[in-house]
Specification:
This protein is an alpha/beta fold and 127 residues long. The protein has one domain (3-120): 3-Layer(aba) Sandwich (Rossmann fold). The protein is built from five helices and five strands, in the order βαβαβαβαβα. The chain has helices at residues 11-23, 34-43, 60-69, 89-97, 109-120, and strands spanning 3-7, 27-31, 48-51, 78-82, 100-104. The chain has a five-stranded parallel sheet with strand order 2-1-3-4-5. Helix 2 (34-43) runs parallel beside helix 3 (60-69). The chain is globular and about 35 Å long.
């Protein structure tokens, strides 16, 4: 069982993702903003983070930049789950450089499970 932090400003999306991960026996915490997510991650670092890209005030990319600047948190695996299918090439390049895996909404339980296993380094050989 891993500790997963979900950061999404849409409460329903965050709750849905949390329930899908809880089915897989993960312990899930949620934040409704990137700022709250940074605070939660710093207080009790999770095993992985599932992050929305588009949020008010601080988006997923800025969250990831700040996370990677923190010595204790820079190695945390991050998966971005976004509804934005049209990310600029430079944004995609920076996300890759910052070590984030990207999936698009809607995301099904099989895809979320595979992403989580990838982030945790527990993907099966045939996955």
């Amino acid at each position: 069982m891993a500790r997963i932090l979900i950061i999404d400003d849409d409460e329903v999306v965050g709750l849905t993702l949390a329930r899908m991960l809880e089915i897989e026996a993960h312990q899930v915490s949620r934040a409704l903003s990137a700022e709250a997510g940074l605070t939660l991650a710093a207080a009790e670092p999770p095993d992985a983070i599932i992050l929305d890209m588009r949020m008010p005030l601080m988006g997923g990319l800025e969250f990831l930049r700040r996370l990677r600047q923190d010595e204790r948190l820079r190695g945390l695996p991050v998966g971005i789950v976004t509804g934005d299918y049209f990310l600029d090439d430079h944004v995609l390049a920076e996300l890759a450089e910052l070590g984030a895996s990207i999936r698009h909404k809607p995301i099904f339980i099989e895809d979320l499970t595979a992403l989580t296993r990838e982030l945790l380094g527990t993907a099966s050989p045939d996955a």
